[in-house]
Design goal:
The complex is a heterodimer of chains A (about 270) and B (about 375). Chain A contains eleven helices and eight strands. Chain A is α/β, with parallel strands linked by helices. Chain A has a single domain, classed as TIM Barrel. Chain A has an eight-stranded parallel β-barrel with strand order 1-2-3-4-5-6-7-8, surrounded by seven helices. In chain A, α2 links the parallel β1 and β2. In chain A, α4 packs parallel to α6, α5 crosses α6 and α6 crosses α7. The relative contact order of chain A is 0.18. The N terminus of chain A is likely disordered. Chain B is α/β, with parallel strands linked by helices. Chain B folds into two domains: about 150 residues, Rossmann fold (3-Layer(aba) Sandwich); about 200 residues, Rossmann fold, CATH 3.40.50.1100. Chain B is built from 15 helices and 15 strands. In chain B, strands 3, 4, 9, 10, 13, 14 and 15 form a seven-stranded mixed beta sheet that branches. Chain B has a four-stranded antiparallel beta sheet with strand order 1-2-12-11. In chain B, α2 crosses α4, α5 packs parallel to α7 and α13 crosses α14. The N and C termini of chain B lie far apart (about 50 Å). The chains are: A alpha/beta (about 270), B alpha/beta (about 375). At the A-B interface, α3, α5 and β5 of A face β2, α1, α8, β11 and β12 of B. Pyridoxal-5'-phosphate binds next to α5, α10 and α14 of chain B.
Chain lengths: ~270, ~375
């Protein structure tokens, strides 16, 4: 599963970025559902999402203090922790998922820090995960992790926020591997009644400065909003809307929802 | 290197500190750092803060020698009376500084977390004074044990939200305040209540509390012609301790920060990253943050300000722990011997002094009495029944 690391200045992309670039070139919009790892039923939900047309999956590693998450994902994290989930148990389960799309993890930095950068990167490789999203690790603090991740060919997805001044965006994009996570609004994860104006505005700014795939996430809450976002962006990450369905209706509800979003963005 | 100077450009005290925040908050932290640096170098800002601390908060706070208890313990025990400040604790020093700065930055609203409610009350007070909107996040457990302070904050015109997530105490209130700030950062200043969080907070909050140590140093020299031998304060996030330590870090005084046994971040933690900073943190084998347990809501926190981690790592300060039972005794001891009811937080500092006084007989011990115990009387009434 691991790839040879890209030599400096080479154009060898990681597995996720290569896959996204190829699909984008073929005219496909990218759909990445978020699923809380360790939540009872998560593996079935993940397979259902892949079968329904997900291009990659973001596996959430539950954390005690998820500052970027709203009530739905907080609840899912808490339930997963109560069910005994740990990063290691989730990696063990991920290893035997047997799905053919790239897998990323979304984890808070203390999970990485506590394991140790190099050890964590190797754990991801062993679990068949190719990318990591660390929402409380901004550019200035990302050096040591990125170095370890690069050495293990783990792609570190960087987040870009609507508050970033223009001169910051190219620096964030230059460090991004896999894709750039364009944060859709000022706020935490959770469903909203409308796509915030900041979502398309930031995606437009990012598209102007990078050719790394740009995906909008946080606050993209249904098929119509996903469709609106991909008018500008290369794809979307769907978080709370997926996790809520998993909590309420299980894997089947997740599969149906992803199929609906897939149809809306393919249209 | 000079101790307790400015942190490095990345907000580090040694290997502790930093700025581990969501990308959305990075520009706000940078803006705050610039604004604070400018304001702190601006004599007109310093004068305005000095006047408001004097005319509104009642500074300087006095020092009081505890003759009765000192005789009993065989030491000269001196209290720095932060309990006499307006709103009843040291928290007002930082809050007046931050709200003046927030106004200077053009912010219309502040959010704050609170544990015991003292920082929340101070924030609500300053917001009322300065015409800012204020929302305070408080763990649901703390809302229950500090009812009176909740009512006070509402009386002062602030909104108080009971936080139901996680351990429903101070750490979860910080999470919720940060979530609010992520959504409202353009109009809102996060008025953080201790020397913790992302850069520049640990540095800025320490500077706003430096007045405690500066005053106490002069007062001790005037009264005794010497610096104290031991300087003691309780440590939750560590702001009152940083305030008083800053006046004595360059003396020979032994610096002691007392943690609750159930929230001993320095004593039992390992370095971790939460709430924007790298510091000692109580966590499990996978890095999940553990819940603290303390009789005092203000110290019920699994982390500690990064500069304390640094002072501990180089051996300049020490961080022993005391038990709830020792704190209950100390609370009553000060009331009975000196006629002063301390906040449960600083009763931790006294508990350590009472336990260890045999080891420094005849010495001068300066303790930061960080707040008054009115807020804790109802809880103690239940405990002592
Ligand atoms: C009176 C008093 N002392 C101490 C503290 C703990 O805070 P810190 O460690 O930042 O001084 C609190 C917090 O609520 C408090 O109310």
């Amino acid at each position: 599963m691991s790839q040879t690391p890209a030599a400096p200045g080479s154009t060898a992309y990681g597995r996720m970025e290569q896959s996204f670039r190829d699909k984008r070139a073929a005219g496909r919009k990218l759909l990445v559902p978020y699923i809380t790892g360790g939540l009872p039923g998560w593996e079935d939900a993940l397979r259902a999402a892949v079968a329904a047309g997900a291009d990659a999956i973001e596996i959430g590693i539950p954390f005690s203090d998820p500052v970027m998450d709203g009530p739905v994902i907080q609840e899912a994290s808490q339930r997963a922790l109560d069910a005994g989930a740990t990063p290691v148990s989730i990696f063990d389960q991920a290893r035997s998922l047997d799905v053919d799309v790239p897998l990323a993890v979304m984890c808070y930095y203390n999970t990485v820090h506590h394991a140790g950068h190099h050890r964590f990167a190797e754990q991801l490789v062993a679990a068949g995960v190719c990318a990591a999203i660390v929402p409380d690790l901004p550019l200035e603090e990302s050096g040591p992790w990125c170095e370890a991740a690069d050495a293990s060919s783990i792609e570190t997805v960087m987040l870009a926020a609507p508050t970033a001044p223009d001169d910051r965006l190219p620096r964030v994009c230059a460090r991004a591997r896999g894709f750039v996570y364009s944060v859709g609004l000022l706020g935490v994860t959770g469903e909203r009644s409308a796509l915030a104006a900041t979502a398309t505005a930031l995606a437009t700014r990012l598209k102007a400065v990078t050719d790394v795939p740009v995906l909008v996430g946080v606050g993209v809450s249904n098929a119509a909003q996903a469709r609106e976002a991909v008018q500008v962006a290369d794809g979307v990450v769907q978080g709370a809307s997926v996790v809520r369905r998993l909590l309420e209706g299980g894997a089947e509800a997740v599969g149906e929802y992803i199929a609906e979003v897939r149809a809306a963005i393919d249209d | 290197m000079t101790l307790m100077a400015e942190p490095s450009s990345t907000g580090r005290f040694g290997e502790f500190g930093g700025r581990f925040v969501p990308e959305t908050l990075v520009p706000a932290c940078q803006e705050l750092e610039v604004a604070f640096r400018e304001a702190w170098a601006d004599p007109s800002f310093r004068l305005e803060l000095h006047e408001i601390l004097r005319d509104y908060a009642g500074r300087p706070s006095i020092i009081t020698e505890c003759k009765n208890l000192g005789r009993e313990l065989g030491i000269r025990l001196v209290l720095k009376r932060e309990d006499l400040n307006h709103t009843g604790s040291h928290k007002i020093n930082n809050v007046l500084g931050q709200t003046l700065l927030a106004k200077r930055m053009g912010k219309k609203r502040i959010v704050a977390e609170t544990g015991a409610g003292q920082h929340g009350v101070a924030s609500a007070t300053a917001a009322a004074l300065m015409g800012l909107e204020c929302k305070v996040y408080m763990g649901a457990v703390d809302v229950e044990r500090q009812e009176l302070n909740v009512f006070r904050m509402r009386l002062l015109g602030s909104e108080v939200e009971a936080v139901q997530s996680g351990s429903r105490t101070l750490k979860d209130a910080v999470n919720e305040a940060m979530r609010d700030w992520v959504a409202t950062v353009e109009s809102t200043h996060y008025c953080l209540g201790s020397v913790m969080g992302p850069h520049p907070y640990p540095w800025m909050v320490r500077e706003f509390h430096r007045v405690i140590g500066d005053e106490a140093r002069e007062q001790c020299r005037a009264a005794y012609g010497a610096d104290p031998d031991v300087v003691v304060a309780c440590v939750g996030g560590g702001s009152n301790a940083m305030g008083i330590f800053s006046g004595f870090v360059d003396t020979d005084a032994r610096l002691v920060g007392v943690e609750p046994a159930g929230g001993a971040a320095v004593g039992r933690g390992v370095p971790g990253v939460v709430h924007g900073m790298r510091s000692y943190l109580m966590q499990d084998e996978y890095g999940q943050v553990q819940e603290a347990h303390s009789i005092s809501a203000g110290l019920d926190y699994p982390g500690v300000g990064p500069e304390h981690s640094y002072l501990a790592s180089i051996g300049r300060a020490e961080y022993p722990a005391v038990t709830d039972a020792e704190v209950i005794d100390a609370f009553q001891l000060l009331a009975r011997t000196e006629g002063i009811i301390p906040a449960l937080e600083c009763a931790h500092a006294l508990a350590w002094i009472a336990r260890e006084a045999h080891a420094f007989q005849g010495k001068t011990v300066l303790m930061n009495l960080s707040g008054r115990g009115d807020k804790d009387v109802a809880q103690m009434m239940e405990i002592l029944k």
